[in-house]
Design a protein that fits this description.
Blueprint lengths: L3 E8 L8 E8 L2 E10 L4 H18 L6 H19 L9 E2 L1 E7 L4 E7 L3 E6 L2 E4 L6 H7 L5 H5 L20 E2 L4 E2 L5 E5 L1 H4 L4 H10 L3 H15 L7 E8 L13
Antiparallel strand pairs: 1-12, 2-3, 3-4, 3-5, 5-6, 6-9, 6-10, 7-8, 7-11, 11-12
Helix pairs in contact: 1-2, 6-7
């Protein structure tokens, strides 16, 4: 059975309130991590992200055996529940949130994930990173279509305009992995909000990972980079790091995913 270690950080940045939320834990041989970035007036974003994280985490914690279909239905149910909370609540009619969730079965050595919005999941194997999610955003569609480069997208004025989010009036179509993916000792995952990932190219994540002694140290190194950048009006920035086994030096060099 695989060994799992998880760490998390959530920082306010230069904003008045932290509207990010996250949660992680285990139930028997299963582990989960959930992260959300909320938006909405009158602190509605904090309410939205809290509800998304709590309901998703509860569903993952109580799952006897998750599947892609289970994750997709859980996200849709959470989306509906958040929508119902907005009815008749003045000032909260437009609160919404992103979602990225990871579920790990340590006995079967498998992982599943799903997401809505522009919070991301990265998977590292042999120290090399791969983005496992594609943002539900206008700018990401432009990148996919070849109209923008990745560097141009980071500075685009519409980079935060989402095409899908939890709690909106429209139905969501969760971006769920099609089948459980095999994982192994030395793998690592990073879940993060846009306030976090906006600072890093893949090689920056790899560099911090190579220098880290633990998942917490990995997050601390990246958070230090965010602070050093000194971006004006820095958004909330949050991340969860998941290590499978011991990503030692011998497992950080090799073939990419």
């Amino acid at each position: 059975m695989l060994h799992v270690e998880i760490a998390a950080r959530s920082e306010t940045g230069d904003r008045a309130h932290n509207e990010d939320d996250l949660r992680h834990g285990s139930a028997g041989s299963f582990w989960y991590a959930v992260l959300s970035d909320g938006a909405g007036g009158h602190q509605g974003g904090a309410i939205a992200s809290d509800m998304v994280v709590r309901l998703t985490a509860l569903g993952l914690q109580s799952a006897a055996q998750a599947s892609p279909e289970y994750l997709t239905q859980l996200v849709c149910d959470t989306h509906a529940a958040l929508g119902s909370q907005q009815v008749g609540r003045k000032g909260h009619e437009r609160m919404h949130a992103t979602l990225v969730a990871l579920w790990i079965d340590t006995r079967r050595e498998q992982a599943l994930w799903t997401h809505v919005g522009d919070s991301r999941l990265y998977w590292l194997r042999h120290g090399q990173v791969r983005e496992m999610t594609a943002d539900d955003s206008v700018v990401q569609r432009m990148v996919h279509a070849g109209y923008l480069s990745r560097s141009e997208a980071r500075a685009h004025p519409r980079k935060n305009q989402l095409l899908s989010a939890m709690g909106t009036a429209e139905a969501v179509e969760p971006n769920t992995v099609e089948a459980a993916m095999p994982i192994a000792d030395g793998d690592a995952f990073l879940l993060c909000t846009d306030g976090w990932w906006d600072h890093f190219e893949p090689h920056d994540i790899e560099t911090a990972f190579a220098a880290a002694r633990s998942p917490q140290h990995w997050l601390d190194l990246m958070a230090e980079d965010v602070v050093r950048a000194g971006v004006k009006n820095q958004d909330n920035y949050s991340a969860i790091a998941v290590w499978i086994g011991d990503p030692s030096e011998t497992t950080r060099v090799g073939v990419a995913l």
